Amino acid sequence: MREARDLLHRVWRPAPDNPLITPELLLVLAHSGSYVVAVEQDGRTIGTCLGLLSTAGLHSHVAAVDDGARGRSIGFALKLHQRAWSLGRGITTITWTYDPLISRNAYFNLRKLGAVPTEYLPNFYDAMRDGVNAGTDSDRLLVRWGLTAGPAAHPAPDRERAGEPGVACPGAVVALDVGPDGHPVRAERLGDWSRRTVLVRVPPDVEALRRTGRVAAATAWRLAVRDVLGGLMAGGRHTVTTFTRDGWYVLSPRLEFDA
Fold first, then answer.
1. What whole-number percentage of the chain has pLDDT above 90?
2. 15 dihedral zone (left: phi>0; alpha: psi -120 to 50; beta)
3. Pick from 35, 41, 33, 34: which is nearest to 3 by CA?
4. What are phi and psi of 212, to 5 degrees?
Protein backbone atom coordinates (compact mmCIF):
# COMPACT_ATOMS: atom_id res chain seq x y z
CA MET A 1 0.00 0.00 0.00
CA ARG A 2 2.90 2.37 0.74
CA GLU A 3 4.49 1.59 -2.64
CA ALA A 4 1.18 2.24 -4.42
CA ARG A 5 0.81 5.54 -2.56
CA ASP A 6 4.38 6.53 -3.42
CA LEU A 7 3.86 5.76 -7.11
CA LEU A 8 0.62 7.74 -7.25
CA HIS A 9 2.38 10.70 -5.66
CA ARG A 10 5.37 10.49 -8.03
CA VAL A 11 3.11 10.56 -11.06
CA TRP A 12 0.46 13.08 -9.95
CA ARG A 13 2.73 15.24 -7.72
CA PRO A 14 0.10 16.53 -5.24
CA ALA A 15 0.71 19.54 -3.02
CA PRO A 16 2.43 18.57 0.27
CA ASP A 17 -0.60 19.61 2.34
CA ASN A 18 -3.07 17.78 0.09
CA PRO A 19 -2.05 14.10 -0.26
CA LEU A 20 -3.73 12.14 -3.02
CA ILE A 21 -4.23 9.00 -0.91
CA THR A 22 -2.87 7.32 2.21
CA PRO A 23 -1.77 3.70 2.68
CA GLU A 24 -4.33 3.32 5.44
CA LEU A 25 -7.21 4.36 3.18
CA LEU A 26 -5.97 2.05 0.41
CA LEU A 27 -5.93 -0.81 2.92
CA VAL A 28 -9.48 -0.08 4.08
CA LEU A 29 -10.78 0.16 0.51
CA ALA A 30 -9.12 -3.12 -0.49
CA HIS A 31 -10.31 -4.92 2.64
CA SER A 32 -13.89 -3.72 2.17
CA GLY A 33 -14.08 -5.01 -1.40
CA SER A 34 -13.04 -2.16 -3.66
CA TYR A 35 -10.49 -2.48 -6.46
CA VAL A 36 -6.91 -1.84 -5.31
CA VAL A 37 -4.29 -3.39 -7.61
CA ALA A 38 -0.56 -3.06 -8.22
CA VAL A 39 1.54 -4.06 -11.22
CA GLU A 40 4.90 -5.45 -10.17
CA GLN A 41 8.09 -6.24 -12.04
CA ASP A 42 11.18 -7.69 -10.34
CA GLY A 43 9.67 -6.88 -6.94
CA ARG A 44 9.05 -3.23 -7.81
CA THR A 45 5.65 -1.54 -8.19
CA ILE A 46 5.44 0.02 -11.66
CA GLY A 47 1.68 0.52 -11.92
CA THR A 48 -1.36 0.86 -9.68
CA CYS A 49 -5.09 1.55 -9.90
CA LEU A 50 -7.85 2.31 -7.42
CA GLY A 51 -11.55 1.72 -8.12
CA LEU A 52 -14.52 2.30 -5.82
CA LEU A 53 -17.72 0.30 -5.67
CA SER A 54 -20.56 2.56 -6.80
CA THR A 55 -24.23 2.58 -7.77
CA ALA A 56 -23.19 2.08 -11.42
CA GLY A 57 -20.97 -0.91 -10.56
CA LEU A 58 -17.29 0.08 -10.25
CA HIS A 59 -15.91 3.61 -10.53
CA SER A 60 -12.25 3.66 -11.52
CA HIS A 61 -10.91 6.67 -9.62
CA VAL A 62 -7.17 6.98 -10.19
CA ALA A 63 -4.28 5.11 -11.80
CA ALA A 64 -0.56 5.61 -12.31
CA VAL A 65 2.22 4.02 -14.36
CA ASP A 66 5.89 4.63 -13.55
CA ASP A 67 7.58 6.96 -16.03
CA GLY A 68 10.17 4.32 -16.87
CA ALA A 69 7.45 1.82 -17.80
CA ARG A 70 5.45 4.01 -20.18
CA GLY A 71 4.74 2.77 -23.69
CA ARG A 72 4.41 -0.88 -22.70
CA SER A 73 0.58 -1.11 -22.64
CA ILE A 74 0.51 -1.36 -18.83
CA GLY A 75 -2.54 0.89 -18.71
CA PHE A 76 -4.32 -1.42 -21.14
CA ALA A 77 -3.32 -4.47 -19.07
CA LEU A 78 -4.74 -2.78 -15.96
CA LYS A 79 -8.04 -2.18 -17.74
CA LEU A 80 -8.23 -5.81 -18.87
CA HIS A 81 -7.57 -6.91 -15.29
CA GLN A 82 -10.17 -4.46 -13.98
CA ARG A 83 -12.68 -5.83 -16.50
CA ALA A 84 -12.01 -9.47 -15.50
CA TRP A 85 -12.09 -8.56 -11.78
CA SER A 86 -15.47 -6.86 -12.23
CA LEU A 87 -17.07 -9.62 -14.30
CA GLY A 88 -15.89 -12.17 -11.75
CA ARG A 89 -17.95 -10.30 -9.15
CA GLY A 90 -21.05 -9.83 -11.29
CA ILE A 91 -20.23 -6.19 -12.10
CA THR A 92 -20.98 -5.35 -15.73
CA THR A 93 -20.33 -1.58 -15.80
CA ILE A 94 -17.22 0.48 -15.03
CA THR A 95 -17.21 4.29 -15.05
CA TRP A 96 -14.40 6.84 -14.80
CA THR A 97 -13.59 10.42 -15.73
CA TYR A 98 -10.84 11.90 -17.89
CA ASP A 99 -9.79 15.29 -19.21
CA PRO A 100 -11.49 15.67 -22.63
CA LEU A 101 -8.61 17.82 -23.93
CA ILE A 102 -6.01 15.04 -23.65
CA SER A 103 -6.14 13.40 -27.05
CA ARG A 104 -4.23 10.21 -26.21
CA ASN A 105 -6.57 9.48 -23.28
CA ALA A 106 -9.65 10.11 -25.41
CA TYR A 107 -8.34 7.70 -28.07
CA PHE A 108 -7.46 5.07 -25.46
CA ASN A 109 -10.81 5.29 -23.64
CA LEU A 110 -13.18 5.58 -26.59
CA ARG A 111 -11.40 3.89 -29.47
CA LYS A 112 -9.36 1.13 -27.85
CA LEU A 113 -11.60 0.27 -24.91
CA GLY A 114 -14.98 1.19 -26.39
CA ALA A 115 -16.13 3.30 -23.43
CA VAL A 116 -18.94 5.79 -24.09
CA PRO A 117 -19.05 9.39 -22.76
CA THR A 118 -22.27 10.02 -20.84
CA GLU A 119 -21.80 13.45 -19.22
CA TYR A 120 -19.64 16.56 -19.56
CA LEU A 121 -18.62 17.82 -16.10
CA PRO A 122 -17.35 21.45 -16.12
CA ASN A 123 -14.59 22.15 -13.56
CA PHE A 124 -15.53 18.91 -11.77
CA TYR A 125 -12.80 18.96 -9.10
CA ASP A 126 -12.60 22.77 -8.92
CA ALA A 127 -9.04 24.13 -8.70
CA MET A 128 -6.60 21.22 -8.39
CA ARG A 129 -3.12 21.66 -6.90
CA ASP A 130 -1.23 18.65 -8.22
CA GLY A 131 1.65 18.82 -10.69
CA VAL A 132 -0.46 17.60 -13.62
CA ASN A 133 -3.65 19.67 -13.33
CA ALA A 134 -2.62 22.87 -11.58
CA GLY A 135 -3.43 26.08 -13.43
CA THR A 136 -6.36 24.79 -15.47
CA ASP A 137 -10.05 24.17 -14.86
CA SER A 138 -10.73 20.51 -14.13
CA ASP A 139 -13.34 19.73 -16.80
CA ARG A 140 -13.98 16.00 -17.16
CA LEU A 141 -15.90 13.57 -19.32
CA LEU A 142 -17.66 10.79 -17.45
CA VAL A 143 -17.51 7.57 -19.47
CA ARG A 144 -19.42 4.33 -19.10
CA TRP A 145 -17.75 1.02 -20.01
CA GLY A 146 -20.41 -1.65 -20.48
CA LEU A 147 -18.49 -4.91 -20.25
CA THR A 148 -20.81 -7.39 -21.91
CA ALA A 149 -21.89 -5.79 -25.19
CA GLY A 150 -20.52 -3.71 -28.06
CA PRO A 151 -16.82 -2.89 -28.54
CA ALA A 152 -16.11 -3.15 -24.80
CA ALA A 153 -16.91 -6.87 -24.92
CA HIS A 154 -13.75 -7.37 -27.01
CA PRO A 155 -11.28 -4.55 -26.25
CA ALA A 156 -8.27 -4.46 -28.58
CA PRO A 157 -4.87 -2.85 -27.99
CA ASP A 158 -5.18 -1.08 -31.35
CA ARG A 159 -8.52 -1.38 -33.07
CA GLU A 160 -7.30 -0.05 -36.40
CA ARG A 161 -4.50 -2.63 -36.54
CA ALA A 162 -6.98 -5.26 -35.40
CA GLY A 163 -9.02 -4.66 -38.54
CA GLU A 164 -11.45 -1.93 -37.56
CA PRO A 165 -11.93 0.54 -40.44
CA GLY A 166 -11.07 4.18 -40.00
CA VAL A 167 -13.79 6.68 -39.14
CA ALA A 168 -15.56 8.09 -42.19
CA CYS A 169 -17.94 11.01 -41.69
CA PRO A 170 -19.32 12.17 -45.07
CA GLY A 171 -21.46 15.26 -44.72
CA ALA A 172 -20.39 15.92 -41.15
CA VAL A 173 -20.42 19.42 -39.67
CA VAL A 174 -17.10 20.66 -38.25
CA ALA A 175 -18.11 22.52 -35.10
CA LEU A 176 -14.62 23.14 -33.70
CA ASP A 177 -11.24 23.02 -35.43
CA VAL A 178 -7.68 24.18 -34.87
CA GLY A 179 -6.50 27.43 -36.45
CA PRO A 180 -3.09 28.27 -37.96
CA ASP A 181 -1.98 29.78 -34.63
CA GLY A 182 -2.93 26.65 -32.67
CA HIS A 183 -5.99 28.27 -31.12
CA PRO A 184 -9.51 26.83 -31.50
CA VAL A 185 -11.76 28.04 -34.29
CA ARG A 186 -15.52 27.64 -33.84
CA ALA A 187 -17.89 27.22 -36.77
CA GLU A 188 -20.82 29.53 -37.27
CA ARG A 189 -24.01 27.62 -36.60
CA LEU A 190 -25.77 27.86 -39.93
CA GLY A 191 -28.87 25.68 -40.06
CA ASP A 192 -30.03 22.79 -37.91
CA TRP A 193 -27.38 20.34 -36.69
CA SER A 194 -29.82 18.04 -34.89
CA ARG A 195 -29.74 15.41 -37.65
CA ARG A 196 -26.10 15.85 -38.67
CA THR A 197 -22.93 14.14 -37.53
CA VAL A 198 -20.79 16.76 -35.77
CA LEU A 199 -16.99 16.81 -35.40
CA VAL A 200 -15.20 18.51 -32.50
CA ARG A 201 -11.41 18.88 -32.62
CA VAL A 202 -9.06 18.95 -29.63
CA PRO A 203 -5.42 20.10 -29.69
CA PRO A 204 -2.80 17.45 -30.57
CA ASP A 205 -0.99 17.92 -27.24
CA VAL A 206 -2.59 20.25 -24.70
CA GLU A 207 -0.07 19.10 -22.09
CA ALA A 208 2.73 20.53 -24.25
CA LEU A 209 0.86 23.85 -24.42
CA ARG A 210 0.78 23.92 -20.62
CA ARG A 211 4.44 22.91 -20.24
CA THR A 212 5.67 25.55 -22.69
CA GLY A 213 3.73 28.38 -21.07
CA ARG A 214 1.09 28.80 -23.78
CA VAL A 215 -1.53 29.35 -21.10
CA ALA A 216 -3.80 31.50 -23.28
CA ALA A 217 -4.05 28.78 -25.94
CA ALA A 218 -4.69 26.04 -23.38
CA THR A 219 -7.38 28.14 -21.69
CA ALA A 220 -9.01 28.97 -25.02
CA TRP A 221 -9.23 25.26 -25.83
CA ARG A 222 -10.72 24.48 -22.44
CA LEU A 223 -13.49 27.05 -22.88
CA ALA A 224 -14.16 26.17 -26.51
CA VAL A 225 -14.44 22.42 -25.90
CA ARG A 226 -16.61 23.07 -22.84
CA ASP A 227 -18.99 25.22 -24.86
CA VAL A 228 -19.10 23.13 -28.04
CA LEU A 229 -18.68 19.51 -26.90
CA GLY A 230 -20.32 20.10 -23.53
CA GLY A 231 -23.14 22.06 -25.15
CA LEU A 232 -23.88 19.38 -27.74
CA MET A 233 -23.94 16.67 -25.07
CA ALA A 234 -26.05 18.74 -22.67
CA GLY A 235 -28.58 19.48 -25.38
CA GLY A 236 -29.37 15.78 -25.53
CA ARG A 237 -29.59 15.60 -29.32
CA HIS A 238 -26.07 14.24 -29.85
CA THR A 239 -23.98 11.50 -28.30
CA VAL A 240 -20.25 10.90 -28.67
CA THR A 241 -19.72 7.74 -30.69
CA THR A 242 -15.95 7.61 -31.10
CA PHE A 243 -12.66 9.51 -31.22
CA THR A 244 -10.36 9.48 -34.25
CA ARG A 245 -6.62 8.97 -34.27
CA ASP A 246 -6.12 12.50 -35.63
CA GLY A 247 -7.98 14.17 -32.76
CA TRP A 248 -11.71 14.47 -33.50
CA TYR A 249 -14.68 13.67 -31.29
CA VAL A 250 -17.44 12.26 -33.50
CA LEU A 251 -20.97 13.03 -32.30
CA SER A 252 -23.99 11.37 -33.88
CA PRO A 253 -27.66 12.38 -33.63
CA ARG A 254 -29.57 10.49 -30.94
CA LEU A 255 -32.12 8.18 -32.56
CA GLU A 256 -34.86 9.00 -30.06
CA PHE A 257 -34.99 12.53 -31.47
CA ASP A 258 -35.81 11.22 -34.94
CA ALA A 259 -39.52 11.28 -35.71
1. 64
2. beta
3. 41
4. -90, 10
